[in-house]
């Protein structure tokens, strides 16, 4: 099995949009709890592939009219297709007598590192989370933009990733960085969570290359991602009209944001209708939509369309509630106003 045979199968038979290969040596400096060799000590190659996110999936959120398309065709639904591709490529590898160890996107959810102390006796740490974005850079698939989102030469920020470890020693792809992101920082300006830092950055050293991306405020990102940002989530505003949760003032961690989102998920009827678990509500309006629009207009990526995605400013909902306790005294409706009683035409007190 050669690298080219594997790539031809992945692209022409399975239908992935891009694929790259890194030798395991490029991960030698990765910490144990993020190192592919911790998962599979005999690994020789790290395979990363991408399936594109359809551009039209973002239209409903950009217009404020239709959320399910992003969830179904760009997020959890597309993740299922990544899993299927992982399995089919893995079968191809194992049909040639090599091991295939899949690291699905679900394995990279937690950003808190390993739980508990490292076991004694030379055992490996728990909760090993291989970063798909870093692995994609190592495999020559693309580069990290300032937003910390992976950018590929063809689709910019529009893809979901899959990762396979194998003991097959395959011909690697060269690392290619600093070709796509031009540091316009529209992602900073248009992120509704104010989670993308304009100046402060993290520096990565891996595979003999160095790159930088912003020092992302993970807690604010997660709150907005789960739809708890009043600026961009009409579902949350409708279910909790009196809550004031300004993103700028939050000091929440990623894990706290994750747990908070899970605790409120079942209380928002619209979210339950979309999915059985918390989902992507923000629409990635800074880190993906603004970035995508900018890269397309400047033809810095290959997948160019007949018309611009949008030339309008992102919409926002007022962050402050329209009514406070002094106005409603804790009642769901105004008992002195017949028009605000349940069942009336104007029953929405807010």
Number of domains: 1
What is the helical fraction, as a range of percent? 25-40%
- Total beta-strand segments: 8
Largest sheet, in brief, is:
4 strands, antiparallel
Estimated structural class: alpha+beta
Written overview of the protein:
The protein is an alpha+beta fold. It has one domain. The chain contains 12 helices and 8 strands. The strands form 3 sheets. Strands 1-2-6-3 form a 4-stranded antiparallel β-sheet, sandwiched between helices. Helix 1 packs across helix 4 and helix 7 runs parallel beside helix 9. The longest helix is centred in the first third of the chain and has 28 residues.
What features would you highlight for this structure?
12 helices, two-stranded antiparallel ribbon, globular, alpha+beta, 350 residues
Would you summarize the structure shown here?
The protein is built from twelve helices and eight strands. With 350 residues, the chain is an alpha+beta fold. It has a four-stranded antiparallel sheet, with helices on both faces. A two-stranded antiparallel ribbon has the order 4-5. It has a two-stranded antiparallel ribbon with strand order 7-8.
Task: Furnish the topology, listing elements before pairings.
Layout lengths: L2 H12 L3 E6 L12 H4 L5 E8 L6 H5 L4 H28 L4 E3 L29 H7 L4 E2 L5 E2 L7 E8 L19 H5 L10 E6 L2 E6 L3 H8 L8 H6 L14 H12 L3 H6 L10 H13 L27 H4 L22
Antiparallel strand pairs: 1-2, 2-6, 3-6, 4-5, 7-8
